[in-house]
């Protein structure tokens, strides 16, 4: 399984990640959502280099231009709710893509222990398609694994791109074990070393869903 950490190369991407993490900036929820969206756009561009292309002739006012254009059938899927602005970033570029949505939330058994619950899925058929699963945070990796399992009930994708912003080292190891190595590529903007006792990424950025949409009851 290929793991691509785009934050390891200097680019404007890291300014957006820094603003997501910064306690003095991240409370501006409009900027927080927009930064997530912008990172979605950057990851889309990078992922677009790995899909299939075909030749197309285009009639211009002055002649015919021959160029290579994407021909993969792309499905952008997102894990609610923090994934929503990230999804929009992908859709800004893959504007012809089909879309899928999966819900996942942590149901706490006590203060520290939880199970991930999936209650909702809306997806097209996935057979033979390029599936991009977007979620800004990969903490334990469980939400990603279970969302992927839920999506598999809709068919077998040809290739899977897992797209995230901050992943823990633990989540990277977990995803490597749980997802098909031969046809999964993982794209992240940062890999952080630790999880705290609540399974939040450290240093991470806090709770992405709450920062984007407000604290839930
Ligand atoms: O890797 P995991 O340990 O499963 O954690 C990561 C999940 O946590 C966040 O969602 P959260 O459960 O906070 O829901 P929310 O987006 O509604 O806030 C995030 O968007 C992932 O889906
Ligand atoms: O660090 C984390 C872990 C789960 N969900 C988040 O939003 N942040
Ligand atoms: Mg959350």
UniProtKB/TrEMBL annotation:
The keyword Glycosyltransferase applies. It comes from the Bacteria. One of its GO terms (molecular function) is uracil phosphoribosyltransferase activity. Pfam families: UPRTase (PF14681). Keywords: Glycosyltransferase, Transferase. Residues 12-214 form the Phosphoribosyltransferase domain. Gene3D superfamilies: 3.40.50.2020. Its EC number is 2.4.2.9. InterPro entries: PRTase-like, PRTase_dom. NCBIfam families: PRK00129.1. This is Uracil phosphoribosyltransferase. The lineage of its organism: Bacteria, Pseudomonadati, Bacteroidota, Bacteroidia, Bacteroidales. The gene is upp.
